[in-house]
Write a structure and sequence with these properties.
The chain has about 80 residues and is mostly beta strands. The protein has one domain. The chain has one helix and five strands, in the order E-E-E-H-E-E. The chain has a five-stranded antiparallel β-sheet with strand order 1-2-3-4-5, with no helix packed on it.
Length: about 80
């Protein structure tokens, strides 16, 4: 699946509790419209995370669709 859009807003956050880092892009200048959030854990993955493929970045869309390690290219 390919998404193409021009992001008019971007932001980043480091979780205050230190669990993850997040960067987001949205189609709307106000942060609305189509949204993509890139997230990465700040904790070391355990064996279960590695076995399930959860030891890498993940992407979340506005509809809460989530995929791990799915980003191939950003232009």
């Amino acid at each position: 699946m390919t998404y193409t859009f021009r992001a008019l807003a971007a932001a980043a956050e480091i979780d205050p509790d230190g669990y993850f880092t997040e960067a987001g892009f949205s189609k709307g200048a106000d942060g609305g419209g189509f949204v993509m959030l890139f997230m990465s854990s700040e904790e070391e993955p355990d064996e279960q995370d590695i076995g399930l493929g959860f030891d890498m970045h993940w992407l979340v869309t506005a509809g809460q669709g989530t995929a791990y390690g799915c980003v191939r290219e950003l232009t």
